[in-house]
Amino acid sequence: MARQHQQLPSDAFVFFGATGDLARKMIFPSLYQMVKRGNLAVPVIGVAFSQWTLDDLHTRAREAVGAAKGGIDDEKAMDKLIGLLRYVDGDYNQAATFQELHEALGDATRPTHYLAIPPSLFGTVISGLKKQGLNKNARIVVEKPFGRNLETAMELDVVVSDAFPEDSVFRIDHFLGKEEIMNLLYFRFANSMFEPLWNRDHIASIQVTVAEDFGVQGRGSFYESAGALRDVIENHLFQIVALLAMDAPPYQGYGAVQSEKVDVFKAMRKLRHEDIVRGQFVGYHDEEGVAPDSDVETYAAVRIWIDSWRWAGVPFYLRTGKCLARTGGEVLVEFKHPPQSLFDDAIDPVDRGNYVRFRLSPVSEIAISARVKTAGEEFVGEPKELVLHTESNSELMPYERLLTDAMNGDGALFTREESVEAAWAVVDDILTDHPRAIPYEPGSWGPQEADTLIAEHTRWHNPQALHGHD
Asked: What are the catalytic residues?
């Protein structure tokens, strides 16, 4: 897919919430890398209400980059970033704050505004930008979550679209900026050998696992408002499904890709009770900020059906959880067994059939499984993997890639309004009408009921500590 650039690149970068954690952990290190690569040479204006000075922001920038992976390994680039920084300190509810921002922009007329702030402040900031005319010829980057359900997502879209046209809105999800996720799309459509097989006639099931071996890490109050279904499945894992299930776009360009992804979400059946297993790790109630009787899920496994010509009857199994046996992410595309057994061992119900495996983390790789005859006179074989390691030391940080694309007007890795609302529609009913969360022991792979969910078609593939299949 060609990388496209709409209109002209932005001539300034404004980020609201400049003194917050997101800016410290992600934005400053990404801006530094952009400067190093020659992708950032315009004013960078931080906006916050913290009674900071520009010197304070300089100090935070150096601390943030120094604490990031790789640290400050190019003093000239760091000095250049410091030289680009400007700061506006003020209340988002006050018109004077946006007047000062207007002055800080100087001659810049095509800024990118990044809302690294709680969604509850989006409306306030967007209104302030519009009243000051700072929405004209500008782009806006909205940080996930994009609402908490279908209703709030639609409300958010009304607020955003009141000031910015859809092609100027960039809904950022760092997951889509990961090299491993981009490789799903590339691998599918850059290799013609898979397309004839990539359908209900040949694929038995597809499963996606994103597991973490740690808990909520002191963010109990946040998780109480999110849960695994909202926090991971509805956005991250649904986006993976869209890349796996979409039809080939009719032309090059991110608009075509986005349209195909929307069609996938629209073809998804709404989740029902029998399609979901919710779990909660033992000890979650002891976390700070968690209600003693909380039913919030720290684990979710769901079965998705896509009622399209390509995927009718093929189950997609998705699961995510905290305090599981291992941290890792993998996709397993299982093909159907041969229709007849020429060799007695070729259709072993214990062994998987052929599959394609995408490892997303902790290292990235792509593997293709096939049975190979073992040495000897007998026609007996065993499954083997052909593994392609796709890890690279030169990979861009997800936020670096996404911020660069947003400033250039390239929306390929962002999410459209129609896509957000279609995805929420799939889970909207089950968010409030769902089975209770089942306790599971930390260090396990979640509730045993999840094994029953998938048993009709396959069994779970657990991400491995080392290369190989389970």
From this structure: 236
